[in-house]
Amino acid sequence: MRRLIAAALATALLPAPATAETLAPLPPYAAAYQPVTVDERGLWQQADEHERALRDSPAVIRDAALNAYVRGVLCHAVGEDRCRAVRLYIVRVPAFNASMSPNGTMIVWTGLLLRVRNEAELAAILGHEFGHFELRHSLSSFKRARTTTDIMSWASVLAPYNSGSLATSLIGLHFSYGRTQESDADLMGLRYMRAARYRPAAFPRVWERMMAETDASALGRRRKVTHRYSAGFFDSHPTELARAANLRAAAGAEIDTGEEGVDPFLAAMRAWRPQFLADQIKLNDFGGSEYLLGQLADRDWSPDLLFARAELYRERGNPRDLVSAAEFYREAIDRGFDDPIAWRGLGVSLLRAQQAEAGRAALTTYLERAPQATDRAAMSMLIGPGDVK
Asked: At a CB cut-off of 8 Å and minimum separation 6, what does 29 contact?
């Protein structure tokens, strides 16, 4: 029994050892893998069903220009031949994530688009996800998970008294293998970046900022902040610290060569950034959102970022926050933010901060600038009788 389990572990479960080799050129692209066995076809059918539901979801952003831009970055990063296998969906979720299914479905959350700073960073994450697809990680994980459960089932029958410790070892190996896959996909993303002449330094910077945002979010919620290089037993991904360090080491002397594509990225996101920012503020994550806004501003607070910061402070609503919110609203207005909602936020903040006269004046300006406002009746009640024109 022990020999059987040891052989199965050696051949089916143990992850391939990580290497620190210099990045090799990309291999010729092979056509997308097609399912062969019954189990594989079942996995693909599940992915197809998910895509059919996703295709009709109201959360999917269907703006042609935004979709064309993101797809263009993907195609430039991985190459036109690889890109043809991908069907891209941008989903309105204010968190940092992207994923890819074995049937060629790539999902990009809008929180990712808000957090990356340029084309190179976007290409790094998209390349990482395509790396999972090209390396067939979903299928490999599926097969290994099935083998794990098979061994655990046989162990519970043949060696019931020792099955608990074996199950723990198998579970640990399963998560370890997932972390190895993530590291391999990171290296594939780096290889795509190099082939597309994007700057490799952009990739580790993403994980460094995500680590800092996680810390800021934890501090805002009065939780303990820890920086770990090694992942935990049940972690399916390496830590951000380990990923950043490994990517910098893998990029080597080439880390600061290549293009970043800042201006095209900002131009493509300009129309959607106000919506992405509004979705972020609704997360009720003051620490993380404040850090993110500061990173996006980079010491140059644009009117839309000032407005978002004002909304963030007003939403938290401490007495001192309302004073800060009013200042940010005024600064946003002074710097050219002309959407009437800035006067509404200013007025509500001032009223809640017991500055009634100034608050009513700001709300009056709001209704003058937005005569068809859907909340006109509610704002008129706050202003009081006789003051609304």
From this structure: 79, 81, 82, 134
Q: How does pLDDT run across 331-350, given as a tens digit for each residue?
A: 999 999 999 999 999 999 99
State phi, psi for 37 to the nearest 5 degrees. Answer: -80, 170
Give backbone dihedrals phi and psi of 198, rounded to 5 degrees, phi first: -90, 155
The rounded distance, in Å, linking the Cα atoms of 187 and 87 is: 23
Q: Which residues contact 252 (CB under 8 A, 6 or more apart)?
A: 22
Strand, coil or helix: 162 = coil
Topology of the domain covering 273-383: 1.25.40
User: 201: closest CA among 248, 249, 242, 264?
Assistant: 248
DSSP 238-296: --HHHHHHHHHHHHGGGTT-SB--HHHHHHHHTTTHHHHHHHHHTT--HHHHHHHHHHH
Separation CA 54–CA 202 (nearest Å): 30
Identify the bridge partners of residue 198 per DSSP, sorted by sequence position.
259
Read off the pTM. Answer: 0.82
Tokens of 7: 């052989």
Residue boundaries of the structural domains of the chain: 21-135+171-254, 273-383
The 10s digit of each residue's pLDDT in 34-56 is: 787 877 888 889 899 999 999 99
Chain centroid, CA 152 distance in Å: 35
Sign of the alpha-carbon dihedral angle for 241, 198, 255, 82: positive
